[in-house]
Write a structure and sequence with these properties.
The complex is a heterodimer.
Chain A: E1 3-5, E2 10-14, E3 19-21, E4 24-26, E5 32-38, E6 44-50, E7 56-58, E8 64-68, E9 73-78, E10 87-94, E11 104-105, E12 109-114
Parallel strand pairs in A: 2-12
Antiparallel strand pairs in A: 1-4, 3-9, 5-6, 5-10, 7-8, 8-9, 10-11, 10-12
Chain B: E1 4-7, E2 10-13, E3 19-25, E4 31-38, E5 42-51, E6 54-57, E7 64-66, E8 76-78, E9 87-94, E10 107-108, E11 112-116
Parallel strand pairs in B: 2-11
Antiparallel strand pairs in B: 1-3, 3-8, 4-5, 4-9, 5-6, 7-8, 9-10, 9-11
The chains are: A mainly beta, B mainly beta.
Chain lengths: ~120, ~120
Amino acid sequence: AQSVAQPEDQVNVAEGNPLTVKCTYSVSGNPYLFWYVQYPNRGLQFLLKYITGDNLVKGSYGFEAEFNKSQTSFHLKKPSALVSDSALYFCAVRDPNSGYSTLTFGKGTMLLVSP
Amino acid sequence: DGGITQSPKYLFRKEGQNVTLSCEQNLNHDAMYWYRQDPGQGLRLIYYSQIVNDFQKGDIAEGYSVSREKKESFPLTVTSAQKNPTAFYLCASSKKGTAQTSTDTQYFGPGTRLTVL
């Protein structure tokens, strides 16, 4: 089975400070990992994904994520937060070695960036 | 959200009624998905389709039905058997489908908010 956990319901950060949104996963093999962002009453927007290769993945809007196999984590990061980054962030995983061929999403983390 | 449209944006249903949510994509994607989003529960998969005239149940298919008669369309019907249908419904699509080796990204529509009166 594949699963993903986002241990923080909410993350608060001041504008200009670095931000981290945490994600850990559980799969039987090597995972495919995704980050999405959702603004109020909107659909999800794709930010970035890790399939293979370099552990540091760069994505849209200055976001990046680091794949850490030993810690089974895929934390989302940004060096300098903007107020406009305030939104709901979802991590998702797919285990290509399992019989379950679709994405499993975490419950989401609300990011609040204060001016 | 570009390329995937959902209608209506807001939908109100009386108890006992069936309602159909529309999802259309012009991305030429093979696979389409329906998710339900409830506060604090993330996204849960209702149904997915890898190809025209084929679809599979997701984690919470009870009380829902779908069809895939055209590549670009994947409507979802919320039936009266769904006991708690009030939620935000999201449609998504991906290029090559849900094969185990697929690395494809899913792209989402803007969503439909369904409220039962």
